[in-house]
Amino acid sequence: MERYPSPDNPDIPRRRRAVPWCRLTSGRDPAMSRPGRARFSLALVVLAGTALLIHAGLQGTLSYYRTPTELAADPDDRTTRARLGGAVVPGSVRQDGDQIVFRLAADGHEITVRQTGVPPDTFRAGQDAVVEGVLGSDGVFYADQVLVKHGNDYRPPPPPPAKSGTAR
Amino acid sequence: MTSQFGTWALGTGLAASVAATLLWLRLALNPDAPLRPARAASGVGLLAAAVACGALEWALLRPDFSVRFVADNGGRQVPLYYSVTSLWSALDGSLLLWLLILAGYAGLLARTVPAGDRRLHHWAMAVVSLVAVFFFALSYFAANPFHPVEPVPADGPGPNPLLRAHPAMGLHPPLLYAGYVGLVVPFGYGLAGLLVGDAGRHWISAARRWALAAWALLTAGIALGAWWSYAVLGWGGYWAWDPVENASLLPWLTATAFLHTVFTRRGASRAGWSVALACASFLLVLVGTFLTRSGVVASVHAFTESPLGPLLLGFLLLVSIGTVVLVGWRGGPGGDAGSQVASPASPPLSRATALVGNRILLTTVAAVVLVGTVLPAVAEAVSGTALAVGPVYYHRTAVPLAIGVLVLMGLAALLPSSGTSPGETARRAIGPVAVGLATIAVTGLSSRPGPMALAAFGCAGFSLAATVAGLCRRSPDNGRRSIPWVRLGGTTAHLGVALVAVGVAASSTYTVAAQRQLAVGEALRVPGATVRLTAVERARTTAGMAVRARLTLGAADRPDGTLVPELTYHPHHDTTVSLPAIRSGPLQDTYTTLLAVSADGRSATVRLAVNPMVALIWAGGSLCVLGGLLALARPLGRRRSVSGSRARSDRSGPPAAVSRSGATVPDGPGNAL
Fold it and tell me: Which residue, A47, B212, B501, B589, is the most exposed by fewest CB within 10 angstroms?
């Protein structure tokens, strides 16, 4: 049945066109009635708020993986937290007060790491390791966490016991 | 021999699941078709999964090293209990456990006599069987543990040493999987409700008990996992916002939101939200499975790619797209209009509004945690940068939202389901708010925690007080003839959540730890505990070589007990595992870990920590599980009502009396309820 008047059907009274959904002022369109409009706005607000929250949360909390070559080459990286991966050079592990000092090697480049606190038990010279911390201006990487690559199963790696305590 | 048998069992399971899907589909489209072949096919699937698990266990126990899984994960020196649990200590075997539980749910659901529209049940069975087809195919084609190994090795390395340190290994993965997999049933019912159309509004009453059971099991699994990582694995913490842990938390959040959507008093539950949450829960289960089994975000460097990753991702995308299409097509205004028109606009200050807030907040927490968990994978896939999201992100985003959920939980206990005036609400809230403020004052004055911790303490106190007040307000002589199980279960679970919040806030804020190298006879002191190293012992165990530090608690003149933390070196895996020694008390835990021992055995590096109120966390977790189980209970001898709303039938007296006094109800010993 035709809904709009046309030269063939002059008897159909002129009617308002169906209101498009984006016309928020219309109360007749069931897709945008008042409760629907309120819900839509609420959803938008919640979505925007969540996006803001996530964005704020991600500022400064991400740490990027770097190789020793990249760290040495890019001086800007010195201020951001980074995760550094490589193999522990055998014979380079020694204790210096309450810090452990060792060298990490990757792609032929070596970098000295000073780690405060005792690394987890699985840490051993010759193994792959990943440390997290900040590169100092003297070219030494100051790490406060040592993570160790573990075997190929789906258990998470143990966080280092240097972290004091629990969830927060 | 065992290899062929096991592979044959997997193949049979695959064929049976395919047959079951087709048969249940036929039933859904033509309700007059016979029921027994479909049920039989589901039963055969269950039998096949059980036989496959049994075959692998048999191979592990003998041990039969011609089977690849046993060659990689079995060992002659492994004790019997850990040989049994090594079935789920690695990827392929755990997939078999998953299959067994999935087939078990399918078999159980097949035998359930559906109340209401039978087509719902048939569609749900078809969906569950389809999921089973995928996982059987995954196991058979991509991760078959039964592949034969040539030449047969003489011995195997045994399971990962971290996974055979404590008997909890036998409980945690099965519980967790039972919770995970159980969420497939509400998902199936949700899709069934969409497919059946307007007459399928009753899918909620059919699905919600399954969702409740799965939720209770998942809560138990998560709580046990947190306890295990704290007390056994020596990581010192119970939650590290690790991707694997987040993978178990995400479906829990949406399942909790789902439960709050479907157990409302008025029957007019929000169909749109219910479908979305039921589907989201299972999709998050698939996301979690993908994340943990493909090695995409599990560790610092990418693992060697396993073929499971792309397959799981493909299935996840397929199911997501299918769900979204179905929701868009069938869940539009046509399906929703019925429930929306039926429910009157809820007054602003009523429980319904609080429930809306609860849904929104819980979904937001899930979204935030999901972003943090998958961001490394997405960033790597899109731009190649390798990054990691630290726990600080979660502290900034998820924790404030969780505190909001806590406040809303307390507030909802104060609001009745019909609307109320602000004055009445304020009058009811005075007590709990006073408790919350007092908590803040006490903690703020006695120590100086940060604002987040103060807020957490205050809100937890408010929530506890409000929940207890809500419990007391329902006086026993209300004219009610039976115990409102769902209500009781909900209140218990809320109490549990508030206790967990207090425990988490206290242990995160007030933990003190120190570590030092001690010579024998030296003491290490932190506020709240002192330990003295009395001896360093070495021993050879079945697993490897162990070194123990004997520590005496308390002052030198008043010894209070002994703690013996241990380090075990496993030569087969070339790893060292530390077992902490904990003295647990109601108010604090004294936590000792042995970090290193000097070569001459005369000194040891020991870490001592005092974690306050950790026992509250386990108590709260147990209460949550208990609450879920209570809500599942029903008085013996009552038949399930078709319309389903238990809370509604509990509230009104006469229908309950009619159903109980009816002569058709058999008299049982528990009928006095």
Answer: A47
- One DSSP character per residue, B309-377 reads HHHHHHHHHHHHHHHHHHHHHHSSHHHHHHHHHHSPPPPTTSHHHHHHHHHHHHHHHHHHHHHHHHHHH
The SS3 of residue B497 is helix
Query: Is B292 at the interface with chain A, CB within 8 A?
Result: yes
Whether residue B189 contacts residue B124, with contact meaning beta carbons closer than 8 Å, is answered with yes
Interface of A with B in 123-152 (CB under 8 A): 128, 130, 147, 149-152
Buried b (16+ CB within 10 A) or exposed e, B39-62: bebbbbbbbbbbbbbebbbbbbbe
Cβ–Cβ of A54/B371 closer than 8 Å? yes
Distance CA A126, CA B625 (A): 46
For residue B315 the two structure tokens come to 């299935």
The residue in chain A having the minimum alpha-carbon distance to the alpha carbon of residue B456 is A168
CB B9 within 8 A of CB B55: yes
Lookup: tokens for A8 = 């063939």
- Picking from B94, B237, B298, the nearest residue to A165 by CB comes out as B237
B561 conformational bin, left if phi > 0, alpha if psi -120 to 50, beta if neither: left
Taking residue B239's Cβ as centre, other Cβ atoms within 10 Å add up to 22
Amino acid code (one letter) for B378: V
8 Å CB contact between B622 and B529: no
Q: How many CB atoms lie within 10 A of CB B418?
A: 13
Q: What is the pLDDT of residues B592-646, one digit of tens each?
A: 988 888 878 888 888 899 999 999 999 999 999 999 999 988 765 444 444 344 4
Residue of A nearest to B580 (CA): A161
Compute how many other C-beta atoms are within 10 angstroms of the C-beta atom of residue B7.
Answer: 19
The residue assigned the tokens 């807020």 is B455
Token reading at B256? 């909790």
Phi and psi torsions of B593, nearest 5°? -130, 140
Q: Which residues in chain A have Cβ-Cβ distances shorter than 8 Å to B507?
A: 165-167
Q: Answer yes or no: pTM beyond 0.90.
A: no
Contact between B510 and B447 under an 8 Å Cβ cutoff? The reply is yes
Helix (H, G, I), strand (E, B) or coil at A137: coil
Can you list the residues of chain A whose pLDDT is less than 70?
A: 1-33, 68, 72, 75-79, 97-98, 117-127, 146-168
User: Is residue B291 over pLDDT 80?
Assistant: yes
Tokens of B151: 């030449």
Residue A80 contacts B where some CB pair is shorter than 8 Å? no
**Residue A154 DSSP code:** S
Q: Is the peptide bond before A157 cis (omega within 30 degrees of 0)?
A: no
Please say whether the dihedral angle defined by the alpha carbons of residues B209, B215, B221 and B224, taken in this order, is positive or negative. negative
A50/B367 Cβ within 8 A:
yes
**Of the partner residues B235, B301, B575, the one whose CB lies closest to the CB of residue A122:** B575
| Contact (CB<8Å) A154/B162 | no
Residues 6+ apart with CB under 8 A from B39: B110, B111
CB atoms within 10 A of CB B601: 13
Secondary structure of residue B173 in the 3-state scheme = helix
Burial class (CB in 10 A: 0-12, 13-18, 19+), A89: middle
Q: Which chain B residues contact residue A74 at CB under 8 A?
A: none
CB proximity A95 to B under 8 Å: no
B58–A contact, CB cutoff 8 A? no
Cα–Cα nearest to B185, from B137, B121, B97: B121
Contact B300 A83 (CB under 8 A): yes
Distance CA B375, CA B147 (A): 35
A118 touches chain B (CB under 8 A): yes
Residue B396 has its nearest CB partner, among A56, A130, A158, at A56
Determine the residue of chain A that is closest to B511 in CA distance.
Answer: A165
Q: What is the pLDDT of residue B129?
A: 96
**Dihedral (Cα; B267, B273, B274, B276), 10-degree rounding:** 170
User: What ipTM, to 2 d.p.?
Assistant: 0.73
